[in-house]
Amino acid sequence: MPVILSDIFGDPNVGVFSFANEKIAVLPAGISTKKLASYTEALEVEAYSIGIADSRLVGVYISGNSNAILLPYIATEDEASRIRSTGTRIAILQEKRTALGNLIICNDYGAVIDPRLKPKTVSAIEKALKVPVHTGTIGGLPQVGSLAIASNKGVLADPIIDESEKKHISEVLKVPVSIGTVNSGVPYPKSGIVVNSKGAVVGSHTLGSELLAVSSVFQTD
Question: Residue 118 sits in a domain of what CATH number?
Answer without folding.
Answer: 3.75.10.10
